[in-house]
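Incident log entry.

Two folding requests arrived from the same account within the same minute. Monitoring flagged them as a possible duplicate submission, but the sequences differ. Recording both here for audit purposes.

Request one:
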Amino acid sequence: MKKVRNRKWKILFLVFLFVAIFVLSVQSIHHFHIQSTSKEFLKYVLADSNHFLEPVKKDFSYYLIKYALKIDLKNPVSVFQHSYQGPVSTTSDEVVMNTPTSSYVEDPYPEKQDKKPLVYIYNTHQLEEYSTANIEEYGVVPNVMMASYILRERLLDEGVSAIVEDNDVSAFLQTNNWNYASSYKVTRLLMEDAKSKNPSLKYYIDLHRDSVGKNISTAKIGDKSYARILFIVGLENEGYEENLKVTQTIFDMLEHDYPGITRTVYKKQGKGVNGVYNQDFDKNVIIVEMGGSENTLDEVLNSVLAFSKVLSKYIEGEEKYEEQ
C-alpha cells in the first residue's frame, strides 16, 4: 500500500514538473523574436500560396495552453508582443497612436534588392501590425514591413525596380537613446544613405498602417475586400506643393481604377504632429497609410496589388515624360 502511495506521489510530482517546465518555456519565448517563422510565411505569401493555413487542433495541449497559460492560439503573436519595451514618447497624440505593436521582420529575399532601383520602400514605423485573425498557429508578424516586401515583389512584376529598407529602426533608436518620436530622424539618415548608394532612386514610399476601426479602413470593390489607403502630406515642408501634386495624382489614379479604395489626402501641420515627414528630402516622398489594425492580411495584399499597379503606371508615365 505504501509503495502504491509513493508511486502516486511520484506521478503527481512528474506531472507538476512537466507543467512547470512547460510554463517556464513558454514564458521564456517572450524574450525572443519570431523572424524565422515570419520569413517562411512571407515566402509562402509571395508565392501566392495559402495551403498552410490550417485550423488549430483542439487536443489536450490546446486546452492546457488556453486555460492554464491564458494564451489564445488563434492569435499566437500576442505571446511575443509583451516583451517589447521600445522607447516611446508621449508628447503628442500622433506618437501614442503609432506605438509599436509587433517585431522586426527579416527580408525573405534579400537577393532581390535591385542594383539600380527606381523605388525605395521603407517604414518609419516598422512595427505597426495588422490583424492576426487569419494566420492561425504560424505565429508570423503581418505588419507593414511584410507589406513592404510584398510591394517590392509586385512592383518587380510590373517591371519597376525597387528595394526595401531592411535596417531595424528600433535598433537605431535604442543605440542612440532616442525616443520613438525620433523615428523620422532615423529614416532620414537611412534615406540619405540609400540615395548615396543607389543614385538611380527617384521615388520614396513610406508605408504605414492607420489605427482607425475596420468600418473606416475597409472597402468592398467587386467581390474583394481591400484595406483602404490614406495619403499624408506635411504642410510644414517649404516645398509641400510639389509633394501634394505628386500625391494627389496617384490618389486620383487609384480612385479611378479602384473606386472607394482611398480615403483622402490628409494634410497635416501644427502642434503635436511632425508636419514634414521627410518630404523635404524629395518631391516624390509619398506617405501611405494602408489599412488599419483590424484589416486582415488578405485585405492588405489586395491593396498592395492595386497600389503597385497604379504606382507603376504613374512611374512609367513620369519616366516617358522625362525622356521627351
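Request two (distinct sequence, not a duplicate):
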Amino acid sequence: MVKNMTENVFAGLTILDHTRYLLGGYATQVFADLGANVIKVEEIVKGDLCRDIAPLENGVSHYFSALNRNKKSFSVNLKSQEGKDAYRKLLEKTDIVMENFRPGVMDRLGIGYDVEKAIQPSIIHCSLTGFGQKDPRSQKAFHDINFQALSGYLSLNGGKVSPIHLADVATAMVAVQSVMAALLQRQCTGKGAFCDVRMFDSFVWWNAILDARYQFFGNQLQEEELELPVLAYNVYETADKGKISIGMLEDKFWEAFLELNQLQELRPHKLSLRRDQPEAFGKLEALFRSKTLEEWKEWLEDKDICAMWVMDKKEAMDYILSESPDLMKYCGFSRTGKTLQTRIPQIISTLPVSLKGVSEPPRLGEHNREILEGLGYSGEEIAKMISAGACGAL
C-alpha cells in the first residue's frame, strides 16, 4: 500500500472504526487501502463480532480477514473512566468516527458527537443505522434480509436469500460517499459534519429503477412484470446441464447470433417475456440444449456477441487470478499463510492502490501499546490500565 507519502492526502487521516459486520468493515476498508490510519475500536473480550464467524483458519475468521487488512486494533473498555479518558485523547488526533450502534449508544457512553466536536471541531462522524437518528424504527433489531423484505425487493426475486448482503453493501457505499463528500466540504469550510447514513434509504436508492417501473406500471409490480429476463437477456441450459448467459440487447449482437444459428424468425422477439412468446423461448432453449457446455465454449471462442458460460466459483477464481492478478491475490499472512485478498476497485492515477505490502488483519488489541504510547502513556500507566480492565492485554 502507498502510505506516508506527502501526495497521499489519506495518509494524514485517522479514522476510529466502531463498526461491526459487513456494512462498516466494507466502508472503512476503502479508507484503509487508500492509506488512512484506520483504528478498530473494539471491546476487550470479544471485539468485532465477525471475528468468530466460521470458517476460521488458525482462529482467524474468513469474514474478518476479508474486511480488515491494513487496519489497527485498539481494545478498550469505554465504560471505564480510564478507557474513556484514553479514547478522548485519541479523539484529539482523529478526523473521522464511524459507528453502527443504535441511536443514543455513543451518547450514553459519553463519547457522542457533541463530545467529539467539542474536542475536535472539524471531526466527521458517520453513523450507520436502520432508519436514521430520529426515527424510532432505528431502535428495533433489523438485518440485511429485513431491509430487502421491507423495500419490496425480496418479493421480486422469488423470496430468495442473496449470497451477498445487498443492503449492507449499499449502505457501505453510501457511507464512503458521505464521508468523502464531508471531507471535501471540510476542505473548503474547515467544518466537520454528522453523516446520518441509513440502511433502508441506501437500499431503496438501489431500487430506484424498480420503483420507477412500479410507478409506470400503474403503481403495481410483480416478479413476472420485471424488465428481465427476456429472450435475448437470459440464462439457458446446455445438453449436459451447463449454463450459458446471453445479454444481446443491442440489435447487432442479437441479429448476428440468430443468423449464425439460422433462427432469424426470432428477431422481433428480442425483448419478449416468456409469457408473451413461449414458442420463441422454446426454440432458443432447444438450440442451447443441442450442444454440451464444452461445445458451446468452443463455439463462443471467436464470437463477440455478449455471451458467456456460467462459471462455477473455482473457474471464476482461476479466471480472476489469471486475467486480473492486480485485483485479487494471495498475500502472505503470519497466522493464515497464503490468504486471498481482493483489492478495492478504485483506479486513480494520482493515488495508486495495490495489494503489495498489505498488513494482515489485526489481532484483538494488537496495537494497544502503540496507540497508548502515541498518546503519551508510559509503560507503567499502560500496565495499570490493563490490570484495571480499561484496555486489553495485547
